[in-house]
Structures are given as C-alpha cells and as structure tokens.
Amino acid sequence: xxxxxxxxxxxxxxxxxxxxxxxxxxxxxxxxxxxxxxxxxxxxxxxxxxxxxxxxxxxxxxxxxxxxxxxxxxxxxxxxxxxxxxxxxxxxxxxxxxxxxxxxxxxxxxxxxxxxxxxxxxxxxxxxxxxxxxxxxxxxxxxxxxxxxxxxxxxxxxxxxxxxxxxxxxxxxxxxxxxxxxxxxxxxxxxxxxxxxxxxxxxxxxxxxxxxxxxxxxxxxxxxxxxxxxxxxxxxxxxxxxxxxxxxxxxxxxxxxxxxxxxxxxxxxxxxxxxxxxxxxxxxxxxxxxxxxxxxxxxxxxxxxxxxxxxxxxxxxxxxxxxxxxxxxxxxxxxxxxxxxxxxxxxxxxxxxxxxxxxxxxxxxxxxxxxxxxxxxxx
Length: 379
Prior knowledge:
By secondary structure, the chain is an alpha/beta fold. It has 2 domains: 18-283, 3-Layer(aba) Sandwich (Rossmann fold), CATH 3.40.50; 306-375, no CATH class. The chain has helices at 2-16, 39-51, 56-59, 73-89, 118-141, 172-193, 204-213, 234-249, 266-283, 306-342, and strands at residues 23-29, 60-65, 99-103, 147-151, 198-202, 348-350, 357-359, 374-375. The protein has a 5-stranded parallel beta sheet with strand order 2-1-3-4-5, sandwiched between helices. A 3-stranded antiparallel beta sheet has the order 6-7-8. The chain is globular, with a radius of gyration of 32 Å. 33% of the residues are buried.
C-alpha cells in the first residue's frame, strides 16, 4: 500500500515538472503602452496561466513592436524592417514565434474602395501592400507553421465626428462595421496570395460592438475607453487580450483567473472573459453577434430588467394610442357628420372605424332598413 502511494506521489510530482513547449508571440503595430495596462503584458499573463506548467514564465514570450505613430504598420515596416526580420527569425525566447499579430491603424481598415476620397483609397492600397510584405516576411523568416493573426481593432466611441473622416465614420456602429469589412478584405487578400498560409482574425472590435448592442452589457461600453473616448482603457485592453488569446489557442478563456493588478472588481473581469469567448465562437461559426445571458451592472446602479422595459414600452404605446385615437376619431366623426348633412337624401354614412362610404339600399319609409350595405367608391 505504501509502495502504491509512493508511486502515485512520484507520478504527480513528475507531471507537475513537465516542461511546457515554448510559445512565442510577436505583436506588430498598435500604440505603445507600458506595465499592466499594455495589451502585450495581458496576453502574456493569460498565456502563462493557460500553459499551467512549471516553467510557463520562461516558456511564454510575447515580443511587442508598437508602431511609431497611431499604429501605422507601413511606417513600422519602413523604419524597422531589419529588426522585425530578426525577431521573426528568433524571438527573445530563442525560438521562432508561433503567432504574429498584426494591428493596423485604427481608421485605415475602413478605407475600402470605392471611395470618393482619393487619399483614402491610396492609403488603403498602401495598407494592403504592407500586409502582403509583412506576410511574405513572416513566411520567409518564421516559416509556414507560424500563424498570422489580424487583430480587428475597435472603433472610436463616437466614430470620427471631428476630423476629415467625419463623412464616413458618423458613429461607433458605422465605423466598426467598415473596419470589420476591411479586415475581412485583408484576410481575403492574404489567403488568395498564399492559400497555404495560416491566417486568423481576432474580432476584438466585434466584442466591443457586442457590448455596445447588447441590452445587458451596454452599461459597460463607456468603461472600455479612456477619457479621450478613442483609446481602449485597461478594461478594453483586457477584453481584446481575451479575444486574442481565445483566437490563437482555441482555449476557453473563461477559465483564466488573471486580472490586472490594482483594479479590483472581479465580476467585471469575469464578464469580459465571457464576452470574449462568446464573440470568438460566434464570429467563426456563422458571423452573428452574440447575445450574452449573464447580466452585469456596477454597484449602486439601478437594475434594469426586461420587464421594466416592456412596461415602459406598453405605457408609452397606450398613451400614444390615446392621443392618436383622439385626433383620428375626431377627424373621422367630423367627416361623417358633414357627409350626412350634405347627402341625407342619398342615404350615405361614413363609418369612422373604416373610413369607407357605404350606400344603404333605398327602402320605403315604413320598411326597416336592410342590414346589407353596398360598397361604392369613396369620395
């Protein structure tokens, strides 16, 4: 019995000592950030937890290479091609990366042709050519086993009402829809150029859209952004990180316990992971926005219920119906009296409920009128 117990303990200790396979991720593009607020640090923390191995801290490496200005991949490639090539050949873990994440400027993906603005069309073509160049570099330096992940960025909270794109990005939903369309075209471009290449879309922007549109989650939408209403907040980056990790690994991110330090509020982070999981699953299985079932509301906020919303709807409908009936009925009854006064001998009457003139059959004065009306053209 003691021998069996010793063997069992030895098996457990051996299993815990199993070394994980190295995982390397290279992230190209995006705005620079530092510390726990940065997207790359959140991605790494989640991957380390999912590895669940003794040496996960050493085996998981995420190299971030932010763009010099506003996440523009073209400028990044022009300025840092050699350094990017070196990172793809061997990341800081000493191995070629498993994933290369490409994040384009926030507005450029929506510049899909046709567009009346020639400048935007030119920027779109440049962006597509840059992606082709980066994909070729990935295949050349990292190899065909490396997966390219297109990080579909979230739109600005209010669209772009204050700059030269206000004619196309009139709202968050409009901008996100155009960005999503652009990333699908990016995907098609890369797939057609090299059908053997492994390319995925991480629908971060779609997760933001799901929060925006869903009744139960909409009270969190403004918390996904910083005060400038454009830059993702810690919560927004956390949502993107969960979407990205779920897309890359296919693992259920809802089991992850990691949350950024100094943030508190476990419920909201749990809800972000649920949104990420459902968004990735639904995006790659039919393309429908998820409808979340778990409700979240900040402490102290009045609870909104569907029954309350329905009650308000029916109350408004009842009041509106009463006002409509007052005006319409008054008009109809007034018209009926006018017609009767003008055509008493002809026997016309106007039915307020239908608005159609009816002609009664002529009958002797001492004979009760027939109940069978005859239809005539309304006047």
